[in-house]
Structure formats: structure tokens, C-alpha cells
Give the backbone structure.
Amino acid sequence: MEQVVYEKPREGVAVIRMNRPERLNAMGQQMLTELAEAWTDFQNDDSLLVAILTGTGRGFCVGEDLKESAERGKPGLGDVRVKDPYFAGEITKPTIAAVNGWAIGGGVAFTTLATLRVAARSAVFEYPQAKHWGVGAFGAGVTENLPVAIAAELALGFRITAQRAYEMGWVNRVVDDGQELDEALQLAEHIVKFRPRTVLNTVDMLRKVRPALPEAIQAEGAHLRVNGVEGDIMATRRVIPR
């Protein structure tokens, strides 16, 4: 793997690190494919119980790689052929997002899919779709059972700081910059002390009682297909760096 670092630093724990710091870990085709491979390995490896998702550099993940999409002439996540069980909401083990910086668009989705969330103090969360496309982000906040007014802030492109996310109960821990992975590892070490079956049963229960974010993400993709690709690509080309 070149754009994802997949490590197993401690017994029962995996760390999946998005590694495109020059693009703030934007979601390009190669990185998405490698993420899918890492998550599939984690899900299938019975020796692993907890996974931590984080990023290299100033960004956690800034969503779709708009430059790559414009060059491809097609918005969205494109033709990734390896199914990602994390993005599909099919991971049956606990996951922890260690948000090290900017979490934009898909980066927010990656965060909300995690069982637990740790954020660096400088982290910022934003869904930018309403600024550039024809609709705000589906599932923004609503799927997290946030109050409608707060969900509206996310859907309409307002930025949420790490501290505010913590105060809303959307993030479990806020730590000094650079400490987010250490904090996530401490949470993971707490979890792996328990019997695996107990942990898996608990995660299964939590998955069943929360709204399904993956269906909302799929609805957003369907909207882009139904409402035309050309206009979306024009919007993409307006916002990518020259």
C-alpha cells in the first residue's frame, strides 16, 4: 500500500492511516481502494478487535479529490472495485476515529461511522456540498440524532469546531494536537481487555439502534446520478485549485 498505512501496533488493535498529506488525505481512487483492502483485512482477522482510523499531516480527510474527479470527468467516488466494509457500515467490531485535522465531506462521514471519536483541538468538521453542488449533505447530523437545528448547520455548510462537537456529544474526547492517536490507543486498550464476544455483541446492539448512515450516503450518490453529471463537474472545476 502507498496511500494507506496499515499497522497492527498492539495485540488486538489495528491502525489504518490515510497517507496523502500533500492532498490533505482527499479521497482518490487509489486511497479508497487501499482503505477498502485494509478494512476488509481488519474485519476478517479474528486476532484484531479494534481499529483506529486517522490521517497523516494537517488533514484527517477532506472528502472527494475534486481535482482527480474533474480530470476523470465524473464526480463522486468513481469506479472503486473493492467494496469497503467500513464505508458500507458493515464492520462488526468497534472502530475509533482519531481526527487529526480537517474533516470535510467524506471525512465527516468517516468520523460518524466510527464507534468512538477522538478529535485534535484544531480539528474542524464541515459538509461543503451545499456550497458547490445542488443539495446539502444527506444524513448530515440527522443520522446522529442531533437536534434539527444543529443538523441544519452541518447540511448548510457551517463549520463545527472540535470543542463544539464535543459539547454536542458528537465527539468523545478532545485532546491537544498530536495526542489524538495516543488517546485513541488508550481507548482501544480499554476495549481489548473485555471478552471479544461481549464486545461484538455490544457493537451489534449499537449498530441496530442507530440510524443507518450508509443508506443516506447512497441516496446522495443517487441524487448526483439523477440530476446530471455535467453541472456537477462544472461546479467541481470552479472549486479545485488552479
Summary: Strands lie at 4-10, 13-18, 50-55, 59-61, 95-99, 102-104, 116-120, 124-126, 160-161, 173-175.
